[in-house]
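hi support,

uploading two proteins for the ticket. first:
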Amino acid sequence: MAEQTMSELTMAELTMADLKTPEQTMAELTAAVLTVSDSSAAGVRADLSGPAVAAALTESKFAVVAAEIVSDERHDIEAAILRLASKARLVVTTGGTGLAPRDVTPEATRNVCSRMVEGLAERMRADGLSKTKYASLSRAVCGVCGTSLVVNLPGSPKGAVESLVSILDVLPHALDLLVGNTKH
């Protein structure tokens, strides 16, 4: 399993100053990015989606506290989600949500989440359908892992960012609800 910080990713648009420890960001919106890709984990292909998602999160006032790359192995994905959920309130995965035999990110996400948040995945697909008919092939899911929210995104940089942008406006409220802040 390959693990890299954002500063180690060659295509990252963030600097070390953009990365903060969980202690520094307790009151802030924290996020972790998990790229699921056999080729990126093996170092054969640069990860473009992870850094693109991290940049979109940073622009939306999230502190990106961790980033990792794992292969399309269910156990590795599950372990990474659990590890990242202990560091960030939002865990965003990119990749492994399609129909290919090794696309198992939704299954791994379901295995570590106690509750699913179907409305977020539905909103991403509905928005995606206005851009491409292939959005209907997405099997992305979203769920609750402890007090963190896990969001699956497509593997393409454009699709990942567009899907994330379609739900960004409700994520702070969702994260508040997860920690018991139910005032509206």
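and the second one:
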Amino acid sequence: MLGPMENQPDRPAGEPQSPVRADWRVTVTLAGYLDAEDATKIDHTIDSSVTVIEQRPASERADVTVAVDAAGLVAAVHAGLAAVARGLADAGLKLHVVGVQARTAEEYERERAEPSDLVNAAEISKILGISRQRVHQLVERPDFPKWRYNPPTGKLYDRHDIEEFDRHWDRTIGRPRKTSRSE
């Protein structure tokens, strides 16, 4: 099925149903990195009641999700692509579209409500058995896993990467020894 359809009992047999207007969420995936300033520019230039911008540094991709009102899947994709393209142009950014996904608003919200394998600093502190302050220190280490998404609420990490880090992490207790300077 290509989106919400209304019952049309009077239509001839075999004729496809026509889509009804619905609220859609269209996610446009862009190649490249959006820093916080670029994300703010795009957010302010896109005319949408809902704009969600998420950076995926591991793959150097950014997802821009917009709300559109459209009569079916194809119309939603066109409207979403047009909104993001206008937003990028108005913000003076030149990023290439590498993917697009359209879902009804209900499906989008259902997916977002599902449990995820992404964890924030509070969840990392529970997994590793350390304070949140210590988590913020650990993320600066070169061997700490890279974050996967950076929504406005804070960086998110893959749970499996954190658990793997925990298995190999040398948990030295206490402060590192001071080394004497030779003059």
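thanks. also noticed: The first strand starts at residue 22 and ends at 31.
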